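Following up on my earlier thread - several people asked me to post the actual chain instead of describing it. Fair enough. Here it is, all 145 residues.
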Amino acid sequence: MINFTGDKKYVAGHIKAIKKVLNTIALDHKCHIRELIYVFMDDEGLLKINQQALQHDFYTDIITFDYSENKELEGEIYISIERVKDNARSFNETFHVELLRVICHGVLHMVGYKDKNKTEQALMREKENYYINLYKQETFHVEQQ
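Reply from S.P.:
Thanks for posting it. Predicted structure:
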């Protein structure tokens, strides 16, 4: 089960394709999605979570709480829409693609990818791009039916 909460307008019309890509990430890594809850929020809300839960005093685009066990993915993924918008501008990317990158990023962490050093970051970015491209293929296919 994959749920989106907060202002769902950011994924409206794309939920089916997003869920398909997230399930593909899980299957590619021999995992199964039990329950993922995505929460879209503002910078201040995510900053409070970052401070209280992780003792980090800075803005971030995503925080993933991973409760997975035995290849059963379960977790809460909090996303700052404001950070995603800023990152999209900074990286000269569309908002929707940057949001999808962050949505995939959370699950990639859950299946074992890290991003603490340059090598890990490069692999994470490669995987994000791979699944974004799958999404684009899926969306184009869905729109043509």
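The longest helix spans residues 118-144. That should answer part of your original question.
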